[in-house]
């Protein structure tokens, strides 16, 4: 096993030689802590087993992997085991993730992965190294080697080939960490103590896919510790299109959710407006010849409906349920 730990002066990850046993001090940094993995899932039963298989290959395994589904069909063919529990909650990413937070109880760290995120074998070990060596870190997120959400999506075989290639080439070994604004929802980890101490939860006013729920929650945890990106904690986000929100609903959320966050104080108004303009601009520019895998015209319609609701003073995240 290759042990990763953090240099307390530089923040860089240091790797012990494979043939050299880790010192007791190094072991203490990653042992004796309880790790909980939470996966909210909906409509992807054929992909979920591959995601779990990669988590079971971790060099530092979690005590528990818990899947929060919305119905039995979400986990069809998947069986519970000593290391795997299946639970249910009403649909909606914040609701499901809050159920996972409740289930985590007094564990030390919670790792949230999307149901289509494939992890490098050292992901958890390298993340715990940073948490252990730098107690002022509250949130970490890994480096996404490829993100199918930004394109037509990746197959499981494509994702595994990218992971294997990164391991062979050493591209998964970048020892640096860097400050970042938020955890990326497909792969992010939190120190649970401040979440418990301050009764923090994902905002359940954000229904369904919950545009920017990861950013909002990260910014509410951020006052209690640093947010960092760990470049050696890598994975591939398949970006599967099944189970996604409709174009019109997503477009509405692209406008209304940032306004909602600015009003409650987790976003600066400038950041919210830039986000709205960036997404609307992209939808306008590409609606003439839209990508086959993105409903650009639906998103643009949703954007316009959101602007009208903001002007009329009736904008609220929950309205996507009526669209």
Automatic annotation (TrEMBL):
Domain annotation Glycosyltransferase 2-like: ranges: 39-141
Key words of the record: Transferase
Domain of life, per lineage: Bacteria
Pfam families: Glycos_transf_2 (PF00535)
This protein's record includes keyword Metal-binding: no
Matches recorded under Gene3D superfamilies: Spore Coat Polysaccharide Biosynthesis Protein SpsA, Chain A
Signal peptide: none
A GO molecular function held by the record: transferase activity
Protein name per its UniProtKB record: Glycosyl transferase
